[in-house]
Amino acid sequence: QMTIDKIAAGEVIERPASIVKELVENAVDAGASTVTVEIEDGGIALIRITDNGCGILREDIRNAFLRHSTSKIRCVEDLSRISSLGFRGEALSSIAAVAKVELITKPGEDAFGTRYVIEGGREVSMEDAGAADGTTFCVRQLFYNVPARRKFLKTAITEAGHVQDLLMRLALSHPEVGFRFLNHGQEKLRTSGSGKLDEVIYSIYGRDVASNLLELDHRAPGIRIRGYIGKPVITRGNRNFETFFVNGRYVKSAMISRALEDACKDFMMQHKFPFAVLAFEIDGEQVDVNVHPTKMELRFQKQQEVYNTVFEGIHRRLLEPEL
Ligand code: ADP
Ligand code: MG
After folding, report:
1. Do 289 and 243 share a structural domain?
2. Is the CB of 313 under 6 A from ligand 1?
3. Domain that residue 313 falls in
4. CATH, residue 251
5. Is the pLDDT of residue 69 over 50?
């Protein structure tokens, strides 16, 4: 079991940002309204994630760290209608296999919290602990037992950059959750959790971008696209400012990027990329969410239709006169 976990971990856990992604998604799944992420040394020495979500019952803790154990799928039918972000039950076992993990958790209905320590897949301790409602994961010394993988990590600055970039996108995909990110105790990102996407965009990208947005709400059968695109005056030099969510999950999609860029082409200088934050609601059966372990690159049943809808919605919005 332990070796298999280590191998499986290689697929899911590439770097500190992969851990942050899995743990933040778990926090969101747990109904947290605030999530704080702290890192030291780019997350290699320490990642600490604190949420005020539902907590984990003591009797469920060991189970949560078992491979393919998830509380999020109860029957086969559920698989086609996954709304929660995580569903594969691999994250905790994978993380615990390649790092030293300390969990402190307390469900609201329990009087005591629990502190659980598991290192390299081996349980170290489980005991009572004073704790606020919710969950804190501390992940220390990533890949301490997998030197071959540790070698592939970049400098702390680069890894911290990956974490910050990821958190920006997670914050954008969940305006209803207040995020804080601290790197070596220094606050790098803070969102209010007000639920307003334009406020998150303001917190992250500043006034220049936030005051030059076009709101978009476009529907076609089986699909709805909402969000903001930047007016052509704030075009960017690279694709990093295109952020997409499908059914609440941050994704990369070359096809959506292409549709967006094709739609903007007539309005922009050549070799420039648009700013866009777009949330897609697509009928669950039309998206294959389980393409890659990190769940980032999606596949659509009807590629061309999705392309057309994105292109049309954006092109039309850019043609509309300003109110
Ligand atoms: P998955 O998210 O795919 O279910 P994970 O390995 O990420 O699998 O998590 C295993 C289980 O641990 C989850 O199904 C959930 O029940 C529990 N869990 C993990 N993180 C949290 C959290 N922050 N708050 C509450 N429960 C959690
Ligand atoms: Mg998960």
Report:
1. yes
2. no
3. 207-319
4. 3.30.230.10
5. yes
pLDDT of residue 83: 44
∠ CA 66-72-75, nearest 5°, is: 105
Reported ipTM exceeds the 0.90 cut: yes
Cβ of 19 below 6 Å from ligand 1? no
**Rounded CA gap, 271 and 167, in Å?**
27
Judge if 140 and 217 occupy the same domain: no
Average pLDDT rounded to a whole number, residues 2-31: 84
pLDDT band for 51, please (50, 70, 90 cuts). Answer: very high
Q: Count CB atoms within 10 A of the CB of residue 84.
A: 17
Query: CA 250 to CA 258: how far, in whole Å?
Result: 17
Q: Do 110 and 258 have their domain in common? A: no
Question: Is residue 235 in some structural domain?
Answer: yes
Is residue 87 scored above 50 in pLDDT?
no
Question: Which residue type occupies 122?
Answer: R
- Judged against a pLDDT cut of 60, whether residue 21 lies above it is answered with yes
Candidate of 29, 65, 174 to mutate for ligand 1, largest count of ligand atoms within 8 Å of Cβ: 29
pLDDT at residue 7 in the model? 64
The span from the CA of 113 to the CA of 127, in Å, is 9
Strand residue runs (E) in the chain: 34-40, 46-51, 100-106, 113-119, 122-129, 134-140, 178-183, 186-190, 213-220, 223-230, 242-246, 249-251, 276-282, 287-288, 299-300
Which of 60, 71, 102, 137 for mutating ligand 1's site (highest number of atoms within 8 Å of CB)?
71
CA distance 279 to 257: 13
Q: By three-state DSSP, how is residue 67 classified?
A: coil
Res 79: pLDDT: 45
- Which two structure tokens, joined as six digits, stand for 130? 């004073």
Q: What's the pLDDT tens digit per position in 93-150?
A: 999 999 999 999 999 999 899 999 999 999 999 999 999 999 999 999 999 999 989 9
